[in-house]
Amino acid sequence: DAGVIQSPRHEVTEMGQEVTLRCKPISGHDYLFWYRQTMMRGLELLIYFNNNVPIDDSGMPEDRFSAKMPNASFSTLKIQPSEPRDSAVYFCASSYKIYGYTFGSGTRLTVV
Amino acid sequence: GQQVMQIPQYQHVQEGEDFTTYCNSSTTLSNIQWYKQRPGGHPVFLIQLVKSGEVKKQKRLTFQFGEAKKNSSLHITATQTTDVGTYFCAGGSYIPTFGRGTSLIVHP
């Protein structure tokens, strides 16, 4: 298995632009998580899905953030409009029965 | 939300010295997971502990889960430069909460 695949690896965008981050989880995993990592706040859980259904989005900072999982093999995290304080590394992770997350390589987002 | 506190934040050691990081929670954890993140990399799952008082070993790494299931530790014997990175614990009643991590710096 190729693991959890995220794209793009790096994204530089201007404030106010829409940003879409993509994730392909490991086949057979029933949980998918979106995390944000910064020096100030560490690893923050933004939202997680179980069997493609959003379960808890209480970590999503604002209405500017949205996430979807249209099928078991694809998820997106969208920020619209983006702001400089959104700059961070965004990780997608998947797991089977919440045992041991497999993280993707992350997307380093810079909003200028 | 549930808080998982991890100490120390940083640890400098000479190669060959031992290293320990501690994870504490004010509430009982159903399980504890440990991850390692190399500089510039992503967290990689190391192990999960479930039972009270459980001890597991992976080569030079020893993981412990407290009797009350409120604390855990990771001990590395005779550190090597390849051990450099940040070690995270993650625990909770259902979806784990990540600690802030302990960054290990190994000086050759």
3D structure, described in words:
The complex is a heterodimer of chains A (112) and B (108). Chain A is an all-beta fold and 112 residues long. In chain A, 0% of the residues lie in helices and 59% in strands. Chain A starts with a strand and ends with a strand. The model of chain A has no long low-confidence stretch (mean pLDDT 96). Chain B has no helices and 11 strands. Chains A and B meet through β5 and β10 of A and β5 and β10 of B.
Give a short synopsis of this structure.
The complex is a heterodimer of chains A (112) and B (108). Chain A is mainly β and 112 residues long.
Oligomer: heterodimer
- Portion of residues in helices of chain B? under 10%
Total E-strand runs of chain B: 11
Write the H/E string of chain A, N to C.
EEEEEEEEEEE
Mean pLDDT of chain A: 96
Q: Strand percentage of chain A, roughly?
A: over 45%
Largest sheet of chain A: 7 strands, mixed
Cα Rg of chain B = 13 Å
Q: From N to C, what is the helix and strand string of chain B?
A: EEEEEEEEEEE
Described by the principal axes of the CA atoms, the overall outline of chain A is globular
Number of helices of chain B: 0
N-end to C-end Cα span of chain A: 36 Å
Low-confidence stretches of chain B: none
Uncertain spans of chain A: none
What is the count of DSSP helices of chain A, taking H or I runs of 4+ residues?
A: 0
Count the strands of chain A?
Answer: 11
Furnish the topology, listing elements before pairings.
The complex is a heterodimer of chains A (112) and B (108).
Chain A: E1 5-7, E2 10-13, E3 19-24, E4 31-38, E5 42-50, E6 53-56, E7 65-71, E8 74-79, E9 88-96, E10 99-103, E11 107-111
Parallel strand pairs in A: 2-11
Antiparallel strand pairs in A: 1-3, 3-8, 4-5, 4-9, 5-6, 7-8, 9-10, 9-11
Chain B: E1 4-7, E2 10-14, E3 19-25, E4 31-37, E5 43-49, E6 55-58, E7 61-65, E8 71-76, E9 85-92, E10 97-98, E11 102-107
